[in-house]
From TrEMBL:
<dbReference type="Pfam" id="PF05942">
    <property type="entry name" value="PaREP1"/>
</dbReference>
<protein>
    <submittedName>
        <fullName>PaREP1 domain containing protein</fullName>
    </submittedName>
</protein>
<dbReference type="InterPro" id="IPR010268">
    <property type="entry name" value="PaREP1"/>
</dbReference>
Length: 186
């Protein structure tokens, strides 16, 4: 997989290539998560899975910005969506942004975002038998959710194939991710 692509600057949020750049980043991060899982680096894999999901949200937010602007309740919220949410996807607002995307037809997205956020907590706090700082008591539980989240990410990206300018780069990254064995390591 060509990870140098991640080093390129993102196109302007107003361009069509912006969605593709985020989707490509999502796929590359997911591939890295799988590689880390295979190497037994579950906390690092959790971080990459989270980043992969966040990149997918960035692509969806840009793709659906016009619809989101219509359901935004105030001018301030519309301005925030355009200037802050789309280019940055703040972690603290991922749940609310996912719920907005659900309102326009992305069923189940906020539940998957909750899983991504749980993995983000696991990345920083590790396993927690008391479940006070992390929702995962052990690395096996986190590894299981990483694989589930990546499978959902693949499904959602494949659904976009007919809605965006699908590039060879995205196709190759998707194929490479799907070929990665997602075994039972943890």
């Amino acid at each position: 997989m060509d990870t140098e692509t991640l080093e390129n600057p993102l196109p302007k949020p107003s361009t069509e290539d912006y969605v593709n750049a985020w989707l490509l980043e999502s796929l590359v991060e997911a591939s890295l998560a799988i590689r880390f899982l295979k190497d037994g680096l579950v906390r690092n894999a959790a971080g990459k899975a989270f980043q992969s999901w966040r990149a997918l949200l960035a692509a969806l937010l840009r793709l659906e910005l016009d619809k989101l602007m219509q359901i935004a309740k105030t001018d301030e919220e519309r301005r925030w969506l355009r200037e802050r949410a789309v280019p940055r996807v703040p972690t603290s607002r991922m749940k609310a942004l996912s719920q907005m995307l659900e309102e326009i037809g992305y069923d189940g997205l906020s539940a998957w975002t909750s899983t991504a956020l749980d993995l983000h907590d696991y990345q920083y706090n590790g396993p927690d038998p008391d479940m006070a700082l992390s929702k995962y008591r052990g690395r096996e539980e986190a590894a299981y959710d990483i694989r589930l989240l990546i499978n959902e990410l693949i499904r959602r990206i494949e659904e976009l194939r007919t809605r965006i300018k699908w590039s060879d780069e995205i196709e190759n990254a998707l194929r490479a991710l799907k070929e990665e064995p997602k075994g039972k390591q943890g």
